[in-house]
Design a protein that fits this description.
With 253 residues, the protein is an alpha/beta fold. The chain has two domains: 123 residues, Udp-n-acetylmuramoylalanyl-d-glutamate--2,6- Diaminopimelate Ligase, Chain: A, domain 1; 113 residues, Udp-n-acetylmuramoylalanyl-d-glutamate--2,6- Diaminopimelate Ligase, Chain: A, domain 1. Helices cover 34% and strands 25% of the residues. It contains nine helices and 13 strands.
């Protein structure tokens, strides 16, 4: 199979994800972060771009990494030590790196949030959770017990969620935002949900969930954000006829 053009893949991803028009956290750099010589023979998907996952990509003979959490989140650190080793490995092995954060969370077809909703069996989804001027999550109405929802989430994520039982035992209006939205329980509550599924949150959110009367499920930041990069890699594979693989490097968080 002939290699695909990196430039064409990047253009495809930027268009699909609406990268240029999508606001994100200050310092986040969505799009191509590291280029290679211009050819792509194999794509790998990872949640986090790190030295460990770059080593895994090199071992898999990939030359394009798709990451949800890329390399850049603010002022650049000195590229020394492990950072230098990471960059050197990317360059030596001709590996490009493309990252998509909030655009991939919010995408209505291949995004982390919509795919987690589908995996949980949620239907009739409505936009939910305003962040950086755009809705990034989804909500639904479903009568389900808190215990049963916890079981569904365990089955989907292959790990038991941390449950903050601040609301009733029966869930009716459920919102989903993957990743680290635990600090924003008030935002979720203000959008008329009684149950909120996200990745992680801090200790003080337990008391806040009680104050808000909100059931909260922390499914794990990593575990809730494996969906989008897999779906994006599959899209690229179909479009450009290149193989892809998901490299699992869970943080446990």
């Amino acid at each position: 199979m002939p290699p695909a053009s990196l430039k064409k893949i990047v253009t495809f991803c930027d268009s699909l994800l609406n990268t240029a028009q999508f606001a994100d956290w200050p310092g986040a750099q969505n799009g191509l972060q590291i280029e290679n010589s211009g050819k792509v023979k194999k794509v790998v998907a990872v949640v986090d771009a790190s030295l460990a996952t770059v080593r895994m990509a090199a071992a898999a003979d990939a030359n394009l990494i798709l990451a949800h959490h890329g390399l850049f989140w603010g002022p650049s650190h000195p590229w020394t030590g492990k950072r230098y080793e990471l960059l050197r490995l990317l360059l030596d092995r001709d590996i490009a790196l493309y990252s998509s954060h909030l655009p991939l969370d919010a995408h209505p077809r291949i995004g982390n949030n919509v795919l987690l909703c589908r995996a949980l069996g949620f239907k009739k989804l409505e936009p939910f959770f305003l962040s950086k001027g755009q809705m990034i999550g989804w909500k639904t109405q479903l009568k389900i017990s808190r215990a049963e929802l916890g079981t569904r989430l365990t089955n989907v994520l292959d790990k038991a969620p941390v449950i903050l039982p601040g609301g009733g035992e029966q869930c009716w209006r459920i919102g989903v935002v993957t990743g680290g939205a635990g600090d924003e329980l008030k935002v979720a509550s203000d959008e008329s949900v009684d149950t909120f599924i996200t990745g992680e949150g801090r200790h003080w959110t337990y008391a806040l969930a009680e104050d808000l009367g909100l059931n909260v499920f922390y499914g794990g930041h990593y575990a809730t954000e494996t969906f989008g990069v897999k779906a994006l890699a599959a899209e690229i594979s179909r479009q450009f006829k290149v193989p892809w693989e998901f490299l699992d490097h869970p943080s446990g968080l």
